Amino acid sequence: MGRFLNATASLLAAVWLASPLPGQAESALRFSTGMIEPWTNGAGTGFHQLLIRDVLAKLGKTAELEVIPASSRAIKLADDGTIDGLTGRVAGLEKEYPNLIAVPERMFVNDFVACTSPGGKLPANWAETRPLSVAYVIGWQIFEHNLPPVRELTTVKDSAQLLSLLNAGRAELILHERWQILWLARQMNVPLTCAEPPLAKVPMFIYLNRRHADLAPAMAEALRRMKADGSYETIARKVFGGLGSSVTEMK
């Protein structure tokens, strides 16, 4: 397990994950995300990296993408203009951060799922979790706000601990974001089954600092074209296709 945690730490320590083309550094737009493998990776082939690169390429621009785990810090850096924007953020940030402009087309839909070992009981909705022993990573507000009282609740510090808890039989059900937990389960060789449909589906957006407000409509149109012509799903299948079958619902 330590090898996988070290790999994650190395990813978070990397400064720029998606580099501009040679000679174009000055024109590159700088974005941040808080999402790690498989949404981003050290090779620059994660979903965020490929998608933001292709969207901006359609506008004749390049992008740099930094992983900043601390959400509040990342948002403030975009709001004060230190970086140019954010990827993979929930709707409504502009209400609290007036210098942020949302691109008016969702980047993807984030699935929050219940998972168990193969053969275990999977809930069809939040209410069906009540008789089960459940675990999730502490601080995930979507679970803190929506999970009803359950038979037994455990919170852990990170996703690897969550999978270890399930694998050891110390929890019947774990809650997480779909693609990160499926990727990590494969790396840790932990058999995992996730419920369909997910417990929650949350649209996620790209944000720009308001000095780039003129780019927002063009980026939205580029995203819509990619969804219509199949190139969006091609990226999703390239990144997530080996993990599951729900990539068609991402857009």
Give an account of the 3D structure.
- This protein has 251 residues and is of the alpha/beta class.
- The chain has 8 helices and 10 strands.
- It has helices at 2-13, 47-57, 71-79, 141-146, 159-167, 178-188, 216-229, 231-240, and strands at 29-33, 63-67, 85-90, 100-102, 108-116, 133-137, 152-156, 173-177, 193-194, 200-209.
- Strands 1, 2, 3, 4, 5, 6, 7, 8, 9 and 10 form a 10-stranded mixed β-sheet that branches.
- The chain is globular.
Number of domains: 2
Individual helix count = 8
Whole-angstrom Rg: 18 Å
CATH-derived topology of the largest domain: D-Maltodextrin-Binding Protein, domain 2
Portion of residues in helices?
25-40%
Taken from the alpha-carbon principal axes, the silhouette is: globular
What's the main sheet like? Answer: 10 strands, mixed
**Distance N terminus to C terminus?**
32 Å
CATH superfamily of the largest domain: Periplasmic binding protein-like II
Annotation keywords:
251 residues; alpha/beta; D-Maltodextrin-Binding Protein, domain 2; 2 domains; 10-stranded mixed β-sheet; 8 helices; disordered N terminus; signal
Q: Outline of this structure?
A:
This protein is of the alpha/beta class. It folds into two domains: 2-107 and 203-249, Periplasmic binding protein-like II (D-Maltodextrin-Binding Protein, domain 2, 3-Layer(aba) Sandwich), CATH 3.40.190; 110-200, Periplasmic binding protein-like II (D-Maltodextrin-Binding Protein, domain 2, 3-Layer(aba) Sandwich), CATH 3.40.190.10. The chain is built from eight helices and ten strands.
